[in-house]
Every structure is written in C-alpha cells, then in structure tokens.
Specification:
With 428 residues, this protein is of the alpha/beta class. The protein folds into 3 domains: 71 residues, no CATH class; 78 residues, Alpha-Beta Plaits (2-Layer Sandwich), CATH 3.30.70; 216 residues, 3-Layer(aba) Sandwich (Rossmann fold), CATH 3.40.50.200. The chain has 11 helices and 14 strands. It has a 7-stranded parallel beta sheet with strand order 7-8-6-9-10-11-12, sandwiched between helices. Strand 3 and strand 4 form a beta hairpin. It is globular, with a radius of gyration of 20 Å.
Length: 428
C-alpha cells in the first residue's frame, strides 16, 4: 500500500473522522472505534456537505491510510498488517479447503493448529493456525500458501463500524430476550455493535456477543437498529419488527474480524433469519466469502453498505460479494453522497443524509453516511421476504425494485443502482 506523506497524514488526522465503517458523524462502538476516536479528529457534517468533491475524495484516501496506521500502531500486540497492508488479527492464519495431510505439512513447517471449527448454521470448516514466533503475518501468509497449494490461506481481517464518539458509559444495553422461532414470526438480523435501550425500539430484541465484552451498547448499532425497526421519534423502515443482533465488537480492539462475522452469519442462518444487514467494510476474505455464500444458499438475503471511503478507495466487502445487496446513500435532494465508497456492483440507494437516528442516550442524533441507507433497504426487503426461501428471494427483490424510484439515467446505473428505496423514510 502506498504510504501518504507526513503532510498528508497530518491533514487527514486533523480533518477527517475514522471512516472504515460505512458511516460519518456518529458515535462508534467500543474497542476499535474508541481507539481510532482518540487519534482522529472530526470533520463536521457541515464541512462534508460543503466540501468540493475532488478535494473530499483526496482527503478520504489520505484518511483511510492514516486510520489504518493509527489502529495498528496503538495495538501492535493484537493487530498487524497482512501482505496487502490490511489490518488483521496478529499472528493468526485462517485456512479453508485444506486436507489433513496439508495441515500436517503446515505444522512441520512451524505453524501450530490453534483451532478447528465447523461454523454452526452454515457448515463451513476452517483451521486457525498460529504464525511462528518472529515471523510477520505477511510473510507467513505467503509461505503457507506455498505449503498448502489449493487451500485458501488468509489473515483474519478486521471490518469496522467506527466514528467519533462521546463516552458510552451512560448507555444501557437494550432489554434482550429470545426472539421466537415460528412460521408466523421472524426477525431482521443486524451484524454490528450491540444496541442500547431506546424509546424508539419497542419491538422484541435478542442480542448475542461474538467478541470479548459483547454484547455491549454501541452508538452505531443503536442508530442502525432505530432505522430498521424504530417507532415514534425515529420511524424505521419496518417499525416494531423483532431484531436479532450480533455484536461482533464488544470491547475488543481486534473485534469485528472475519471469524466473528462468519459465526454471526451462522447463528442467524440457524435461527431462520431471512434478511441480514451489515454496515461494515473491509477487504475480501476467503472465509467470509464462503460464509456469505453458504448463508445465501440457505435463503438469507444479505444487505451491505458500500462504505464512506470515497470512490477512489478499494471495493468494499462484504458489499462486493456476488449476491450481496449493495447499498449507497443519497441526501435530501436525492443527490448521491460524494463520500460514498464503491462496490463491484450496486443494487439500491436509500436516504443517508439530512436525517436523524436513535442515539445511545435515548435521544436522536444527526447522521450521514451509507451505513444509514442499508437498514432502510433491509427493512423494506423484509416486507417482501419475511422467511428464508432461496426460490422466493428473486421475486422478493423484484418487488423491492418495483417500489424503488428511478434516479439518474433511466434504468439501473452505477450511481443509484436499481433506484431509491424508502425515499420517505428519513426522519428530518
């Protein structure tokens, strides 16, 4: 990865929030989010809205690089870069598709098996190997790929939903209980931070932790939840719908990793969730790709935001995986957000600016970013697809496209996808 100059780093640090996640201007989750919050300054929403698009794109590129530097430098004991300079869990390799003989070869090469798992709900098998002492993650990946031809070897990459945050000490976790499983009820799945108690969230909520210290209340997760199922001060796209929430961050600086997301997808698949939304971005990862594919094969519709790292950033994942419903954001005048990232494809746009969402203190907060567009699409899709059924998913998406408002060039385009969903859902 090309490193920015000291001057560009200084500009990025002074001017832009940490936007690995698909959101801007909202409190983040504990752990990784809190780490970045202490290092990065905040570009106000007014500054973003008034910025020159070309200048903003350059600053977003600088900020992405600075953000990764900040995170790795503050947690070198837990996080390091892979061979592509992406942040990942230190000293850990993920291996899928390897035979027992190949794993034995890896152990003779100095790697140690620290875990083997079949992820419940999606039946994905993988091994977790430790990197030999003194060897970098980047070098270990290259060496392991030579030792294990045909297998998929990668780091346990990190995916983030973080931003400038006030203290969350006063936030209380939303009351949680089991969401009933029956042919007459279902829930929308949310993979993010935990959600806080909020008066707009009156429906049933079940939360489970997939990281140290999880579930814990987060501002990002709470805002997303309110835009899905809120009632009252914040009205979501599917008011009162039960939520199944997977907190993949907790208090762990290395939370939000590929393994945590894959396990969360397995949990939701096993619980017969039909729609899962993720406002997270990061690099491609073989284990995550397999998990996404396995969940989709079982009927899950996965919605993901394209991120806010700008059009010059690498394609965002999981939004870029085949079959994942990629969502971008627009402002109150239906203009595409200039900070929106990109994916290998784009399916829909939804409101992502000039609006409010639920805050962890029980009030509301102004929000902006593609993070807040994805839950609107998930909520509307759930109206057409309440039970997982691979044979019915295409028809449900066709109905969702039928209610979308065509923007830009006639028909599907690269700026708005199939059109604007839930255009009147934003709480002004």
């Amino acid at each position: 990865m090309k490193r920015p100059s000291v001057l560009l780093l200084a500009i990025g640090l002074a001017a832009l929030p940490a936007m690995v996640a698909a959101q801007i201007g909202l409190p983040g989750v504990p752990g990784a989010g809190a780490v970045i919050d202490r290092v990065m300054k905040t570009l106000t929403l007014d500054q973003i809205e008034g910025a020159d698009p070309v200048n903003l794109a350059d600053r977003l590129v600088d900020a992405r690089l600075a953000r990764i530097d900040a995170l790795v430098s503050r947690h070198r004991d837990l996080i390091e870069r892979d061979e592509r300079d992406e942040p990942a869990v230190r000293g850990v390799l993920l291996v899928t598709g390897a035979s027992a003989e190949q794993i034995a070869t890896a152990t003779r090469g100095g790697f140690a098996v620290i875990g083997r798992e079949t992820i419940a709900g999606i039946d994905i098998d993988y091994h977790m190997l430790s990197v030999p002492a003194g060897e970098s993650l980047a070098r270990a990946i290259k060496r392991a790929r030579k030792l294990l031809p045909g297998a998929e070897v990668s780091a346990d990459h990190l995916y983030f939903a973080s931003g400038p945050a006030p203290s969350l000490q006063a936030a209380a976790l939303a009351a949680t209980g089991r969401v009933k499983d029956s042919v007459n009820s279902s829930a929308i799945g949310l993979i993010d931070g935990g959600i806080a108690r909020h008066p707009a969230l009156t429906g049933r909520v079940e939360q489970s932790g997939f990281a140290r210290g999880a579930p814990a209340p987060s501002a990002h997760g709470t805002a997303i939840a309110s835009l899905i199922a809120g009632r009252g001060a914040i009205r979501g796209a599917s008011p009162g719908t039960p939520l199944l929430v997977a907190d993949i961050y907790g208090s762990d600086p290395a939370g939000g990793n590929a393994v945590a997301i894959a396990r969360a997808l397995g949990w939701m698949t096993a619980r017969k969730v039909s729609v899962v939304t993720m406002s997270l971005v990061g690099p491609p990862n073989p284990l995550l790709q397999r998990a996404v594919g396995a969940a989709r094969d079982r009927g899950v519709a996965i919605v993901a935001a394209v991120g806010n790292d700008g059009p010059a950033a690498p394609p965002a994942y999981p939004a870029s995986y085949p079959g994942v419903i990629a969502v971008t954001g627009v402002d109150a005048k239906n203009r595409a957000l200039p900070e929106a990232g990109r994916a290998m494809h784009l399916d829909y746009a939804a409101p992502g600016a000039d609006m409010r969402a639920g805050a962890v203190n029980g009030a509301t907060a102004r929000v902006r970013g593609t993070s807040f567009a994805a839950p609107f699409v998930a909520g509307r899709l759930f109206a057409h697809y309440a039970r997982p059924n691979p044979a019915a998913r295409a028809a449900a998406l066709a109905r969702l496209t039928g209610e979308a408002r065509d923007l830009g060039k006639k028909g599907p385009d690269k700026l708005y996808g199939n059109g604007l969903v839930c255009g009147d859902c934003a709480t002004k």
